[in-house]
Amino acid sequence: TGGAGDNFLFEDCVAEDILGWGFKVAHPKQKGRMVRCRAVRSGLGGFVIGSKSDDMKLTDCVAEETGAPGYWTSSTGKQLMVVAGMRIQGEDNLPTPKGITIERCAAINKDHPGAMDYGILCEATLEGRNIVIIDSHATGAKIADIHGFGADNDTAGVPAMGDGVHTASASPRKTAIELR
C-alpha cells in the first residue's frame, strides 16, 4: 500500500499470520501481477486490490483460512469489518478499478468455515471495467463464496451447507488449484 507502484511482480510469495491484509495493492497500483502467492491466516483479507488500481492480475494464488485468527471479531462473535479471502474494492465516482483478472485462484477456509464473510468479493461496478474471474473457486465463506462478478459467476444464491457455509466455483472446468 502507499504511493506509486507500477509494473511489479510478486511471484511465489507467502504471507502468514497477518493482522490485516496478506497482500494489499492500493493508492493507486498499475500493471501488477501476483503469481502463485499464498496468504495464510490473514485477519482481514488474503489479497486486496484497491479501488484506484488498473491492470492487475492474480494467477494461481490462494487465500487460506482468512479470518481464522479472529482479530476482527467482537466478543459477541460479530465481524467488525468485512473479511474476504480475495477482494476488489470499489468506490463511487471513480473510473477504476479496471482491467482486473483473477485466474485459477482459490479462497479456502476448511479448518475455520465461516471465519470469512466472502471467499472472492468484487465491490466495484463491473460495467466497462473489464473485471473478470476465470477458473477460480472458494469454499467456507459465511455469506457467499463468490460475489459481485455478475449472475454467471456469483454464488450468493447457493444453498448453505452445514453452518451457513457455502462451496462454489466460478467455472465448471477443473482448475489448477485443488482444494485441500
Radius of gyration: 15 Å
Distance between the termini: 30 Å
Number of helices: 0
Share of residues in helices: under 10%
β-strand number = 15
Features:
180 residues, mainly beta, 5-stranded parallel sheet
Descriptive account of the structure:
The protein has 180 residues and is mostly beta strands. Helices cover 0% and strands 43% of the residues. It has no helices and 15 strands. The chain has strands at residues 9-11, 14-18, 21-25, 30-35, 38-42, 45-49, 54-59, 62-64, 84-88, 98-103, 106-108, 116-122, 131-134, 137-147, 166-169. The strands form two sheets. Strands 2, 3, 5, 6, 8, 9, 11, 12, 14 and 15 form a ten-stranded mixed β-sheet that branches. A five-stranded parallel β-sheet has the order 1-4-7-10-13, with no helix packed on it. It is globular.
Compose a concise summary of this entry.
This protein has 180 residues and is mainly beta. The chain contains no helices and 15 strands.
Secondary structure: elements and pairs:
Blueprint: E1 9-11, E2 14-18, E3 21-25, E4 30-35, E5 38-42, E6 45-49, E7 54-59, E8 62-64, E9 84-88, E10 98-103, E11 106-108, E12 116-122, E13 131-134, E14 137-147, E15 166-169
Parallel strand pairs: 1-4, 2-5, 3-6, 4-7, 5-8, 6-9, 7-10, 8-11, 9-12, 10-13, 11-14, 12-14
Antiparallel strand pairs: 14-15
